[in-house]
Amino acid sequence: MDLKNLIWEQEGRVAIVTFSRPKALNALNEETFNELARVIDRVESDDTVGALVLTGAGEKAFVAGADIGELQALETSMAFVAKARRGQNLFARLEDLSKPVIAAINGFALGGGLELALACDIRFAADSARMGLPEINLGLIPGYGGTQRLARLIGEGQAKMLIFSGKPVTATRALELGIVENVLPAGELLAEAKKLAAELAEKAPVALALAKRAIHDGLATDMGTGCSLEAHCFSVAGGTEDCKEGMKAFFEKRPAQFKGR
Ligand SMILES: C/C=C/C(=O)SCCNC(=O)CCNC(=O)[C@H](O)C(C)(C)COP(=O)(O)OP(=O)(O)OC[C@H]1O[C@@H](n2cnc3c(N)ncnc32)[C@H](O)[C@@H]1OP(=O)(O)O
What are the protein's UniProt keywords (predicted)? Predict the structure, then answer.
């Protein structure tokens, strides 16, 4: 892909996208948002891609937030609303991808950078990484979904601790809080994230997409409605050729060959 602030690589069925704005610690500007939207379109539509890994260029930062220079240039309250909605809508599209998205947090994930990671399905962090929502120090609050996703992920009190204080936490503390699912030595982070992505990319694509849908949409509703949604996703998966192949492969004691239908 022809990109300036992102680097697109593909290894087998895994797409690896690296945020690369070295002079701004990979901060998210409008141009990067436009490119991320194109990447999301590509991942969703490209059947050769079964999973996506996001990471940051360099050792210092994953993504150090929204571009503060662009925020400083905003002059009206409606401009701030538009800025927030732009990021919220883009991250919602990332979260809505039918394929698994793994964040490999290689360094600072601050503000919009952590909000980006929170819109991913699974977060791996380097043991040297630090993450937080420091917008309060700029007289702002998180604006790309961070107040909503973090509170749902780690609970209201812990989310308030991070958002009110603006203080970053270490990767180890992030693991304790449930912000990340794994912490690894920095030198092993990307390899392990790609390894998991490759494993997930070989699963039955429709079943994996339905599991993601049932979990995500179920959390937005009550248990009864969520279980009803699960039953319908279960039935759709049950009607796929891949389900028939999976069960046939089990009895024939061989690996299943899933085709995504
Ligand atoms: C809705 C979402 C809102 C938001 O996300 S608001 C922004 C939230 N993020 C932050 O507040 C983090 C801002 N960055 C920092 O606090 C620091 O950076 C770090 C702690 C990450 C690293 O500090 P250090 O090691 O001293 O590096 P350095 O000199 O501050 O940064 C290197 C260059 O990167 C630029 N930069 C860093 N973060 C951003 C950013 N978020 N937007 C624009 N530029 C950024 C700096 O200005 C500087 O540039 P130069 O070398 O020209 O002085």
Answer: Lyase
Phi, psi for 258 (deg, rounded to 5): -80, 140
pTM of structure: 0.97
Catalytic residues: 115, 135
> Within 6 Å (CB) of ligand 1, which residues are found?
24-25, 27, 64-69, 87, 108, 110-112, 134-135, 138, 140, 142-144
Complex ipTM tops 0.90: yes
- Residue 1: which pLDDT band, with cuts at 50, 70 and 90? confident
Nearest to 40 by CA among 85, 108, 89: 89
Please, what are the domains in the chain? 6-202 (3.90.226.10), 205-252 (1.10.12)
Q: How far is the CA of 153 from the centre of ligand 1 (A)?
A: 25
